[in-house]
Amino acid sequence: MPRSRQPNRRRFLQTVSAAGAAAVLPASSDRIFAADSPNERPVFASIGLRNQGWVITQSALEATDVVALADVDANILGATAEKMVNEKNTKRPDTYKDYRSILERDDIDAVLIATPDHWHAKIAIEAMYAGKDVYCEKPLTLTIAEGKLIEKVVKETGRVFQVGTMKRSQDNFLKAMAMIRGGRIGDLKRVTCGLKDFQPSPSIPVADVPKGLDWDFWLGPAPKVDYRALPEVREGYGGGVPFHSNCHYSFRNWFAYSGGKMTDWGAHFVDIGFWGIGEKQTAPIEVTPQDFKMGCEYKDGYPVPQDRYNVATTFEVKVDLADGVEMIITSEGDGGVLFEGTKGRFFVNRGKLAGKPAEDLASNPLPDGAIEEVYGGPHTPNHVVNLINSMRSREQPISDVWSHNQMLEICHLSNIAMRLNRSLKWDPSKREIIGDDQASSFMSRENRKGFEIEM
């Protein structure tokens, strides 16, 4: 990666120093939008456009001007630009294969990042040093160390950073939080997070890289490997790509790029569970895998075959928390969260809020302002708009990096525990695994040469 194009900490600090002590933030934060005019439409760009990338780009178009797009797949890059013109009646955005071309622009206030997980930390950190606020899809990180680094850069640069755990902006989950805060189930004792399972893959052979895809750039920080795919095409959400591959959509099933259902859906439902418990009041102290199955054979924490999915396909993990509340993370049952307290229990997911405490809302509704109190202000179901409001106030949004990382550390620890098939003890104050050097080695990873995060 050419150093001259790399936004970094040195350049950021030089910018701040040159501007004087009063200019704490880089140049784009001084734009009229953020500083003075609540009616000014901010200028956004999207990096990573497939599936959720298009979803959040559409959400942003409600209140922003999206002027640039970046993706390493020329097919999805061109198709997304056309959709913006034809379906959303907007001016055709500028398009780039290399996201750094977006970061170099002074007219962009914020970036939306929806790349595969292994790219999140690098792009987000470089964007902050380039003076951009950030919306980054969940799960935010591939490792615990990346989360700590992102927190450091958010604090150093003063950027506003929204994580894409958009269930924090959805009605059912806000009602659930208000019910817990209002004592509707008494003292919380147990939280069960259902994430759903998935099927292991057959052997996936080496295949030709699809035309238009820059495979080396897609891999980026991850190790250099061959592209793999079977010919069957996926239907529905994520359609138009191979059902089994180590790339589009299926990247979630390989530890080199993601963390399986544990981090993909855990970033939603473990987040809601931990939010209900109260992330400021508690922390994990031990993670114990009780029953699980990996997608392939493992040795010393690493997959033996390289030709198939390698994350956990089914699992049940027990998480002991410092205040005595127990959390269970399971692939069984419906996707959602079951909260159990001393006075009752209820289940919540995007389409359901069920149980007697929920039924009682008909005769005993939540008090006025309860949702706003949970949300920290006026509620918007558009998670991107919550970022925009936070950009105006320069306060962190509903899904801030600190609460997200505290929750996601549980998911990362659960994956490490399953890879090694043993319980892990956690020091929440130091954010370290206790007495297990081998497990601790999985808390970070080395980026491939040429794709390092320059600090």
TrEMBL record:
PROSITE patterns: TAT. It comes from the Bacteria. Residues 204-452 form the Gfo/Idh/MocA-like oxidoreductase bacterial type C-terminal domain. Residues 65-164 form the Gfo/Idh/MocA-like oxidoreductase N-terminal domain. Keywords: Glycosidase, Hydrolase. GO terms for molecular function: alpha-N-acetylgalactosaminidase activity; nucleotide binding. The keyword Cytoplasm does not apply. InterPro entries: Gfo/Idh/MocA-like_OxRdtase_N, Gfo/Idh/MocA_oxidrdct_glycsds, Gfo/Idh/MocA_OxRdtase_bact_C, NAD(P)-bd_dom_sf, TAT_signal, TAT_signal_bac_arc. Its EC number is 3.2.1.49. This is Alpha-N-acetylgalactosaminidase. It comes from Rubripirellula amarantea.
